[in-house]
Every structure is written in structure tokens, then in C-alpha cells.
Amino acid sequence: MNILGIWDGHDSGAALLQDGQLRFAVNEERLSRRKLEVCFPSRSIAACLALAGLSPEQVHLVTASTSDPAKTLGRWWPGTKERYYAVRRRKAPPGSSAGLTRGLKYRITEWGPGVFSRALSHRALKAELARRSLGHAELRLVDHHEAHAAAAAWASGFPSCAVVTIDGLGDGVSATISKFENGRLYRMATSPARSSLGVFFEHVTNLLNMRELEDEGKVMALADYAAPVADRDNPLLEWVQVRNGVIETKRPGHAMRTPLARVHWRFPNEQFAHFAQRVVELTAMALVRDAVRLTGSPRVALAGGVVSNVKATRQVRLMPEVESAYVFPHMGDGGLALGAAVLGSTNSSDVVRLRLDRLDLGPSYGTNEIEASLRAAGLRLDGVAGIPSRVADLLAEGRIVMWFQGAMEYGPRALGQRSVLARPDRLDIRDRLNLALKRRVWYQPFCPSLLENDARRMLADWDGGINRSMTMAYEVAREYRCHMAGVMSVDGTCRPQIVDEDDAGDFAELLREARRRWGAGVVLNTSFNIHGEPLVCAPAEAVDVFLRSGADALAIGPYLVTRPE
Q1: Buried b (16+ CB within 10 A) or exposed e, 114-141
Q2: Of the candidates 236, 216, 118, 105, the residue with the CA atom closest to the CA atom of residue 166
């Protein structure tokens, strides 16, 4: 069967499964060029079908997640989510009624789905699909958190495991514990939307004058700069508790902001961030501890927006109760389309084979398209042999190189397809990269990509684990911290991509060339974009960002372009 999973909310996108195998997955932002796009994923659907060589008539089933009243309202009146998108991303002023609107938004999103909202969501989605010649396909609506759980469970490779989802909210739920066994999910515990760890952290992010649903990673990074405070002196720890697998908050999500603001007023920003970060870590650990007990499995698969917090998932991985912890690489709502497609396949009796060893699942472009983009920008076409070696030479000299090779990555991380690269050991290069290109806060660390053998010696707590796609923090061994100075947080941890030693691709070869030049197969790897914009997708976008940035060179397909004087 050809099964199309779609998601039409925050970070919308589509995924295509053919006979239970993942064929293609992409998020709308990469094609619309609006970061964390919220509109119906028309371009993503078209890209899925084009790559597979399918006509719309050949799609048998479309699965979509979430049918609560808030999502249904957005489907019938898209202007409501467009307005929130513009304000949240600081593209429009909040207006005089911002406080009232915010409170109403959080109240409505806490409501669970009912017969009426499901029927209206189904009707709205059928109309959108019909406009794209997909009206004939069967449409199934699936639960928000079940889609998160399905993506994590089937991608984990575990034959059985505990599955934990921790999100903001969706379909009236904020977190779940399920047991995955014999190809089925069994829900064991459910946390209501009113008691949301994700909404708690959203409020903290917003109070720190950052963008909720986007800058939570900055809050996590800022927390590392706080003065040490014992848990007993953390005024926020009593706000969130876990009892028998269910999160309970002192106040509902819609009533948290004002009392949180009172706490914030008493402390510096970094201390407030630390208090909140510690709440996330301890709550995640407590929820996983209950998940292991309730399911009887020491293996845990995690998904949902909150598990993008790599410091929290590291604490989970280090728990004595946990044998192995896997984080789905597109853990936020952007991964819902794939989770929905998985549920559609399993319910249609397809055998799902979801291998995510490689995440180059998006669009790819040929040499002709690359050449046309370079010519249109007036750049010379200097084709060179041995791109990895030439790029390694530039990096060794302290240059910043943009890297555009192969198919685009699936998920939020740059993983050697659409990357900006630099030496990992030079703080001056890190600072230049922040100022000249990324234009982001100074305290947010960059990430390393490193070969597996180097990871074993340079990361103190990496033992060949399954989290290889920048989904978890690891401690850098003290004797190698000078080698990783530009890709390490102030607490000595990093969020690495681990590359197989014998990978035959150009990116792995670049890492091997790096090892020959500075003694370690590791580079600084950050996303190929200007901060606040989506990761580049097509060659023309790569050329545009290169020309607008302060990077020294662009390695795109077979061409190595240096910056004009």
C-alpha cells in the first residue's frame, strides 16, 4: 500500500510509506521557506509523490493526527493559527489583547477531542485533500500522542520497550506511557493537557523574552551559566510532580504564567532558566522510572517536543533502571506525519520496517540544478576532485565552509548533508561563526560530528549507543576538551552526531581527512542557514545563504566555490 502521513500544524510535513517501508519524509518549512511552517503541507505532499513517481490516484490511505477543538478551529479558520504564528515568531506585534488571547489559547488547547471536533476535522481535511486530487483516498485520524509513540517505538529497533511521550499538548494529553510489544502499542498511563511539562517550559521560555516552541534549547543552554543551587532551594520543583506515571502540576497550564513571572522577578535570567531546566530533568526521570516499572521493560523509546531537551534525555540514559534509551530523531510535532503513517501501515496489516540509520530522506538535486544556481549568482564553476580532502585543508586553515551534498536531512539537525563546518578546537572560529553567520546568542553551543572510534575515546560516557543523530548530550572526556572547545557547553557536555567509521559517503571521508590533519575525526557541524530561517533545501537557497553570510567557501556537489574578494 502507498500510505501518506500528514501533519498540518506546527512544523507541518508529510511522510510516505510504501508496503511498510519509509520512502520519503520532508517538512513544509524546507519548501515554503517559513521556519516551523504551520500551513497545510501541500508542497511536502507533492514532493513525496514526485520522488516516488506516484500520481495522487495511487495513494490508498492518508493518515493525519490530532482532532482536538483547537486543531479543528485552525483547520476551519487558518487565519487564527497564522496570527499566532506571526506573533510567536515576532513577525507581528502582539496587540493590546495579547494577554487575553494567550490565556484563551492555552485554555482551548487543553480540551480533548469529541465526536463533533473529530467530524469537523475529518471534513476539513477531506476538502483540503480533494483540492490536491487526493479526495478518493481513505482518510484516518489518529491520536496525537499515539503518533509520537509509534514513530519512536518502530524506529527504536527494540522488539519490546517502554514508550514515553512528553509534549506540550495534543488531543487533550500532555504525556503518555505505553508498552510496545509484538508490533502493538498498549497505553499504560496518560497525563492530561492541563498538567503539561511542555507548557510549563513554554511559559519560562516566553518570560525570558524568547520564542516559545522554538527557543527552548536556548533556555537549556542558558541554565548552564547559573550558580549552583541545591534542589531543596529550587522554588519551582514543587510545581510539577509524577505519581504512578501521571504528571501533576500545581496549577493548570493556562494559569502558570503569572505566578512564574513572580518567581522570575526575584532571580537573574540564568538562575530562573536553571530552576526550570532542573524541573524538566527530574520530571522526565520520574516519568521514565514509572514507565520502566509499569511496563516491566528497561528499554525506553522517547518522543515529543520536551525530549528535544538533550540534558534531560542524558539524565534518563544514565538512570540505573534504564538499560537503553532511544530518542526519535524528529521528536517534536514535525515527526507526527511519520508517526501517523506508521499507524496507518500497522492498521492496514503492512509489516513496518522503519530503519533510520540514515536521515537523508528529503529532496536531492542533480549537477545541472547546482550549475544553474551558481551561474545565476555569477559564481565560477570550479569542479574539483577530492572534495573532502580540499574542504579538510580549508578547515585546517581556520576557514568556515558550507557543505551541500546529497539529499536533505529529515528532522531539525544538520547531519552532513546541509551543514556549516569548521574546526572544533578553536574558540575564535566559533565566535566568528556566531557573529558572521549564525547571528545567535553567544551561550548556545555548536555541535560536533565525529567518527565512531573517536567518539569512544573522546566522549566519557558513550558506549556505542543508538543515539547518533544529535538527540542526546554526552560528556567530553577531560583530556580531550581542548580538542572540542568550540563544540562543548560550559559544563563539559556536547550534543554529537556519531558517524560510522566505515561509511563510504563524502562526509565520513571528510572526517577521516580531519583526523589526518588535527588528530581527531571531528568537526564543528551546525545547520546550513541564517539563524531564524529554515535549513536550506535547494541549491539556489544554498548559494543565497553563502553570499549573505561570512562563510569562506561553499562545497556544493562537485564544486568548491570560494568567496569572491
Answers
A1: eeebeebbbebbeebbeeeebeebebbb
A2: 216
Task: Name the CA radius of gyration of the chain, rounded.
Answer: 23
Give the type of residue at 81.
K
CB 362 within 8 A of CB 25: yes
Long-range contacts of 24-27 (CB under 8 A, 24+ apart): 24/48, 24/51, 24/52, 24/361, 24/362, 25/330, 25/337, 25/338, 25/361, 25/362, 25/410, 26/361, 26/362, 26/363, 26/408, 26/410, 27/334, 27/410
Same fold flag, 2-147+337-347 and 158-330: yes
* φ and ψ at residue 306, rounded to 5 degrees: -65, -30
Q: Give residue-wise pLDDT tens across range 355-414.
A: 898 899 999 999 999 999 999 999 988 888 899 999 999 999 999 999 999 999 999 999
Worst-scoring range by mean pLDDT, 254-258, 353-357, 523-527? 353-357
pLDDT digits over 419-438, tens only? 999 999 999 998 888 876 77
Q: Are 536 and 528 in contact (CB under 8 A)?
A: yes
% of the chain surpassing 70 pLDDT: 99
Helix (H, G, I), strand (E, B) or coil at 322: coil
Instruction: State the Cα–Cα distance between residues 425 and 189, nearest whole angstrom.
Output: 45
Pairing between β-strand 61-65 and β-strand 21-27 as defined by DSSP bridges:
unpaired
**Domain 158-330 annotated CATH 1.25.10.10:** no
pLDDT tens by residue, 32-79: 999 999 999 999 999 999 999 999 999 999 999 999 999 999 999 999
Where do the structural domains in the chain lie, given as residue ranges? 2-147+337-347, 158-330, 367-562
* Residue 564: per-residue pLDDT: 66
Distance CA 133, CA 135 (A): 6
Measured CA to CA in angstroms, residue 261 lies from 106, 203, 255 at distances of 16, 9, 11
| Number of helices followed by number of strands (H, E) in the chain | 19, 21
CA angle (188, 189, 191) in 5-degree steps: 160
Give the pLDDT confidence score for residue 223 in this predicted structure: 97
Task: Give the residue with greater pLDDT, 237 vs 101.
Answer: 237
Residue 331 has pLDDT above 90, yes or no: yes
Q: Is 504 exposed, middle or buried (0-12, 13-18, 19+ CB in 10 A)?
A: exposed
CATH class for the region spanning 367-562? alpha beta
User: Taking the domain 2-147+337-347, which CATH number applies?
Assistant: 3.30.420.40
CB atoms within 10 A of CB 452: 18
State how far the Cα of 194 lies from the Cα of 191, in Å rounded to an integer.
Answer: 8
pTM above 0.85, yes or no: yes
